[in-house]
Amino acid sequence: MSNLNKYGTNIENWVCGCPYYLTNRFMICKHLIYLKGPVNPSFFDTIKRNNQYPFLIFDKTPICESHNQIINNENNNSNICSDHETNDTNMDMFDNLIDITQQVLDLLKEQKKSRNINWVQGVEQNFNQIKTMVNEVNQYKRRKTMPRTWKDHNHNTRFLK
Predict the structure, then answer these.
(1) Which segments constitute the SWIM-type domain (predicted)?
(2) Averaged confidence pLDDT in the chain
(3) Can you tell me the distance from the alpha carbon of 44 to that of 128, in angstroms, rounded to the nearest whole number?
(4) pTM of this prediction exceeds 0.70
């Protein structure tokens, strides 16, 4: 038990100060396992990972009841859990972003056609985050090796398929 106190292991917040925990992408270490003790396998269906503290969220509703609930989405051939099926709200988000991007593209073409240099210089800074996102995604796609851990990802590449 002295090692547990030494590393500041806290089972309620699921944190540990040991070096293994701090570098493990699954946010787990032997100290936490020891303190948690035996668990029912369904326990792992109720855990959600988070990028910020708290790193693990214990939820009463299971993420997936079983692997049998994974279905094949015919539109994009990706596997999704039936508990989190793509709903209209999520698809509306895509449609909204595509619509806004199309409007911006039309505006850029219109201003280019009229050779409005002052306008483009004024709004160029608005595109810096988009440029960064595109560069990071392109760099991620050109990588020669598989990402080793979440440390090899960022918010623009973490969930790419």
Answers:
(1) 7-40
(2) 76
(3) 40
(4) no
